[in-house]
Amino acid sequence: MSKPMNIGDVCTGCGECILACPFGAITIVGGKAQIGDSCRVCGVCEPICPVKAIVIKKSDGPQNFNDWRGVLVYAEQHEGKIHPVAYELLGRGQELAVTLGEPVYAIVVGSGITNAAEELVKRGADKVLAYDHPHLTTYRDDPYSQILTEAVKELKPSIFLIGATSIGRALGPRVAAKLKTGLTADCTSLDIDPQMKVLLQTRPAYGGNIMATIYTQNSRPQMATVRYKVMTEAKVDPAHKGEIVKKTVNPSTLQDRVKVLGFEPAKEQVSIVDADVVVSGGKGLGEPKGFELIQQLATALGGAVGASRPTVDEGWIEYRHQVGLSGRTVRPKLYIACGISGAVQHQAGMKTSDVIIAINKDREAPICRISTMAAVGDLYEVVPRLIEKIKEKKGSGTP
Amino acid sequence: MSVGLNIVICIKQVPETTEVEFDKETGRLKREGVAAVINPFDEYAIETGLRLREKYGGKIKVVSMGPPAAEQALRDAIAMGCDEGILVSDRVFGGADTWATSLTLAKSIQLSGSHDIVICGLKTTDGDTGQTGPEMAEHLGEPCISYVSQIIDVKDGKVTLKRNLDDGVETLEAPLPLIITVSKDVGQPRLATLRGRLAAKKAVIKTITNKEMGMNPKELGLDGSYTRVTKIFTPEPHAGGEVIEGTPDQLADAIYAKLKEAKIV
């Protein structure tokens, strides 16, 4: 947009920037480059310009944030049990903190959370803020966001990380807005910029087709919600010493404009769009009954069943399972395609999945080319063995 | 509620497909022939608003922040049955992150009269953050309920509704006015009707610029944003097709090892 991006008179209209712009936002008007509405101010064009005509207006430069120190992790808990994403945040948080030479903090809000707080210390937190109150048993938008806001104002961490669960993604924006700071959603990678010492927050956009690295320029803390199961969990270290601070809950923070009338625990069945694991079947199943095997594998992995269009057209399975251009688009952590050749239309609905595994008799099937791993074989021989292995490991209790 | 509900729906115009690809030679996003449409998640917000109006009466205002071309998205919403469209558009709004966007939207909603409920889609298909709704609620000082799956009733200045959490469904009661973001469970969005299309053609879209809002430009757009994009790149392609062969047992073992590596099992 015209505001932050300026093109100076020295512009020769050479067009180098047009080629460089990932958004096609630059055109030549009257022999000079002009930046249009689709500009996302990504800055790619600035260093490309041979005559240095493009200037991105920098704001007043990073302020002094020296009094903001430490990496704070929000430890979501359910009935006193910490959500594993918090351990992942502590894992990455420790590494970031070491780079910065700063401490790692955790904050836990709930009722009867003493054990949870101790667990957080074992997972590397140097200090745990515990807000324990009978009225805080389950997540409530108003009190939880109020408590986190006050805690952050008092503690002044330079970085504040929240798991991108449905609670985290509701809570994060509330807290960020109250704190008047930036928030980057659903990050998949976090790093420290070696020069500026700021948090580089990388996240997917456009359905995972592009990645953007973002930083928080002129406010603190630097806040990000972080996708579950991308970072490595902090190891348990019973010898790690940390302080548990039992915070008094200010009664005014307990006010809640919203009243809970009821809660219905989720049924086992997961929808394919939300599932972390999708196991799909195609015409290679040979018959409708084949989906029973697909369901077994999906159940063993805690996932949902997907299907290719031909199987739905044949009436083997309901439409709500269909993955692809004319069905649902899914982006699970794991997609297993059994007996699916992988037409372009099917790929359009699943190719941004984190890990793709194909089981197919035909090694030339298109799906094999886009898969992380393609196993060439008969799914009726491979899948039952795979289910056995998964169940075996589950039964023996080893993680 | 004899006069019905004042409903505001926030929508965004996005590229029709997220299948944006980088052209390897030019390093540009391939955008040729990509149409701009209402963010698909926002269609569920529109559907929610239309159902509310059907049940309780009232009026639906659709608000969109974007370039002048976003006017078409507002017309499309009117074609689906909304009453009025407001385009929030000004050069100084450009380059906004979710903070600045939510602030601008909140101000323009305040400027366009009172509301009982503001409905947003869960997220957009381009930015994919889901933050604008909840942040806007903070700016408006109103409660926000995300992931709403069903509105049960609106009565005596209160709404009862259901929302999805990771581990189940909550039933909640909240006072009006409030902000909600809705999931796809609220119901399949309807198609535009012929009558709606005619109304959309004739509709006068009101534009709000910063002249009407009168905000400090430093609070808006890129200047008003706390976050900055420093780099945009294409994700690594899938570590190119490792194809394995062997006995069913070997294949199952290899797959299992992969699942372990990916922390699935």
Using the alpha-carbon principal axes, give the shape of chain B: globular
Domain count of chain A, please report it: 3
Strand content of chain B: 25-35%
SSE series of chain B: EEEHEHEHEHEEEEHEHEEH
Number of strands of chain A: 22
Descriptive account of the structure:
The complex is a heterodimer of chains A (399) and B (265). In chain A, helix 5 crosses helix 6 and helix 7 runs parallel beside helix 11. Chain A is built from eleven helices and 22 strands. In chain A, the strands form six sheets. Chain A has a seven-stranded parallel β-sheet, with helices on both faces. A five-stranded parallel β-sheet of chain A has the order 19-18-20-21-22. In chain A, strands 12-13-14 form a three-stranded antiparallel β-sheet. Chain A is of the alpha/beta class. Chain A folds into three domains: 52 residues, Alpha-Beta Plaits (2-Layer Sandwich); 184 residues, Rossmann fold; 114 residues, Rossmann fold (3-Layer(aba) Sandwich), CATH 3.40.50. In chain A, a hairpin with a 2-residue loop joins strand 6 and strand 7. Chain B has 265 residues and is of the alpha/beta class. Chain B has one domain: HUPs (Rossmann fold). In chain B, 29% of the residues lie in helices and 29% in strands. Chain B has seven helices and 13 strands. In chain B, the strands form two sheets. A nine-stranded mixed β-sheet of chain B has the order 9-8-7-10-6-1-4-5-11. A two-stranded antiparallel sheet of chain B has the order 2-3. Chain B is globular and about 70 Å long. The mean pLDDT of chain B is 90. At the A-B interface, helix 6, strand 11, strand 13, strand 14 and strand 17 of A face helix 3, helix 4, strand 7, strand 8 and strand 9 of B. Strand 17 of chain A pairs antiparallel with strand 9 of chain B.
